[in-house]
Write a structure and sequence with these properties.
Blueprint: E1 3-10, E2 15-18, E3 21-24, H1 28-38, E4 42-51, H2 58-71, E5 77-81, H3 87-97, E6 98-99, E7 104-108, H4 121-132, E8 138-143, E9 146-149, E10 153-155, E11 164-166, E12 173-176, E13 179-182, E14 195-196, E15 204-208, H5 217-223, E16 228-233, H6 246-255, E17 260-264, H7 277-284, E18 288-289, H8 295-308, H9 312-319
Parallel strand pairs: 1-4, 1-5, 5-7, 7-8, 15-16, 16-17, 17-18
Antiparallel strand pairs: 2-3, 6-14, 8-9, 9-12, 10-11, 12-13
Length: about 325
């Protein structure tokens, strides 16, 4: 019999209806009863928090990470019940925090509260249990019959049960006929030992470029003393530079020791800022390209890197290093 730790954090799966809308209300005893109906395995349930996932951030990531680090050797696998809206951010953050963990860490949740008759919560929990008992290790999201690597997961739908997609990376596993079919070729292989680290709450700004964007925003970033900036460019790697000089703004940031990570507003396929003149000019200022990484993974990685260093060359080296499969396999 396997022993699985289930960590509760709130989210829609734990919600009940109130006069103020859906609120996380269901706790430990409620989930113990659900889990008994899913599997005969032994479960320990710990309620670390009961919040909407919109309120998730570094402080909460560290609480979850600390609990996983303390518990990992006592369990076959660990499940984190989490709200869907920021699940991809948390999955990415935990991937970097829990590098080379030899236990499956599986995030799941639901689009509708588990207490509702048509909820997807039961099936997603069942998938998470199967994943937690599997031979894979690392951080994953289990949702709608799919298991997705933590650093390649993005929420793509607001209402559909099929809410998450694996971006630029194959599924880790798919549920077929109630059996988990694992794609072993997708598993990131590392020879390093387990390493745990918290993430400090550094000030990182995500900036989505728009046509005619006022480049005074860059002066604001400098004056507000942000620690790092992520810029979502257009398409493959374009940005305005003739009539609205974004490149000059990026150069200002770099000169003020503020690292700039470049990614695309497009979900699928890689960014390549070397193709067009504007992107190449941005790279020549010292900006760092993120390749196939999702915005969520870039955000989590930059937060994690800034916990370790503010040296620009070291940050560049870290972003070229494939720590947990975020750059592919």
């Amino acid at each position: 019999m396997d022993k699985i730790l289930v960590i509760l954090t709130g989210g829609t799966i734990a919600c009940g209806k109130t006069n103020n809308g859906l609120v996380p209300l269901k706790g430990k005893e409620y989930f113990i009863n659900i889990l008994k109906g899913i599997s005969d395995d032994e479960f320990d349930v710990k309620e670390l928090m009961s919040i909407d996932s919109s309120d998730m951030g570094c402080a909460q990531w560290n609480i979850i990470g600390d609990e996983i680090c303390r518990s990992k050797d006592q369990y076959t696998g660990i499940i984190v019940c989490h709200g869907t809206d920021t699940m991809a951010y948390t999955a990415s953050a935990l991937s970097f925090m829990l590098q080379n963990i030899n236990t499956p860490v599986v995030l799941t949740g639901s689009q509708r509260p588990a207490c509702e008759k048509d909820s997807d919560g039961y099936s997603n929990l069942s998938l998470a249990v199967k994943t937690a008992k599997s031979s894979i290790s690392g951080v994953y999201v289990a949702f709608y019959d799919k298991v997705i690597s933590g650093t390649h997961c993005v929420k793509t739908h607001t209402l559909s049960d099929n809410a998450f997609e694996s971006i630029n990376y194959p599924y880790t596993a798919i549920l077929k006929s109630d059996r988990l079919e694992i794609n072993y070729n997708s598993l990131f292989k590392s020879s390093s030992v387990f390493e745990y680290s918290n993430i400090s709450n550094s000030r990182v700004l995500l900036l989505k470029l728009t046509p005619d964007m006022d480049t005074m925003i860059f002066d604001y970033i400098i004056n507000s003393k942000f620690d790092g900036v992520i810029i979502e460019g257009f398409g493959l790697g374009g940005m305005s530079f003739k009539f609205s000089n974004t490149v000059l703004g990026i150069e200002k940031l770099i000169k003020n020791n503020i690292p700039v990570i470049l990614c695309s507003q497009c979900l699928y396929e890689k960014s390549d800022f070397k193709v067009y003149e504007s992107g190449l000019l941005a790279l020549n200022t010292g900006a760092i390209e993120s390749g196939i990484m999702t915005t969520e993974a870039v955000y989590a990685k930059l937060k994690w890197v800034l916990t370790k260093t503010h040296d620009m060359q070291t940050i560049r080296k870290y972003f070229k290093t494939n720590f947990v499969g975020e750059l592919g396999n």
